[in-house]
Write a structure and sequence with these properties.
Length: about 220
């Protein structure tokens, strides 16, 4: 990917739980951000709400396909039930891009580890070799992202990709959003992140919490 002064990040399915919080933090850090949705009107409404929260006018809202076309890096924040259909519908416009897949195939009512392959591996197989899929942010609690977006979060992000250079780009994005991040292996290891998401949700239920998160011990921060 060529160097650019300001990266544009597009969030497909950006009106759900995770997307708005990530958008808020990236916009606050100076990135150009596009909220994508199946409905352009809904995307525009959420973008306006986030701009108002930050006192900015830099976040745009548009239909998923247009958002993907305009973005340098595309982030899939769709519900896991819409993952396959969304990837297939955007295949043509995602070619040549880094695609960040945040999907954890977990039923929040009864969280269980999903079966192989990982969602990100499935996305890579559909999109083909011209796309560089990176799995990240599965274990990040959406409820924490909107709280004081200018402040760093005391949590770690696992970044998985077959392409270490693409993983490094996404690791920098996580840092830009105020999180620590570490390369954790190829796309097959992303299945572990999905399983950890199920575990964290179950722990939230057990301990009547909302934002249990992941921290890695024994590594120097990057």
């Amino acid at each position: 990917m060529s160097e650019r002064l300001i990266l544009t990040i597009g969030l497909m399915g950006g009106t759900g739980q995770l997307g708005p919080g990530l958008a808020l933090r990236w916009a606050n850090a100076g990135y150009q951000v596009i909220i994508g949705s199946r409905q352009a009107e809904k995307a525009a409404r959420v973008a306006a709400e986030l701009n108002e929260m930050l006192g900015l006018e830099t976040i745009q809202g548009m239909q998923n396909k247009e958002a993907a076309q305009r973005a340098d890096i595309c982030v899939l924040t769709v519900n896991h039930s819409a993952h396959q259909a969304t990837v297939e519908s955007l295949k043509d416009v995602l070619q040549g891009k880094i695609v960040v897949d945040t999907t954890a195939r977990v039923d929040y009512r009864d969280p269980r580890p999903p079966s192989a392959p990982s969602a990100a591996r499935m996305a890579q197989e559909v999109l083909g070799p011209e796309c560089r899929v990176v799995a990240a942010f599965q274990t990040v609690p959406a409820s924490r992202l909107k709280k004081e977006p200018e402040e760093p979060l005391d949590l770690d992000v696992l970044v998985c990709a077959d392409d270490p250079e693409a993983a490094e780009e996404v690791r920098k994005l996580a840092q830009g959003a105020g999180m620590r991040a570490y390369y954790a292996g190829d796309l097959d290891f992303a299945l572990v992140a999905e399983g950890l998401t199920a575990m964290l949700i179950a722990m939230n239920k057990r301990y009547k919490a909302r934002d249990v998160s992941l921290r890695i011990a024994g590594l120097e921060g990057e």
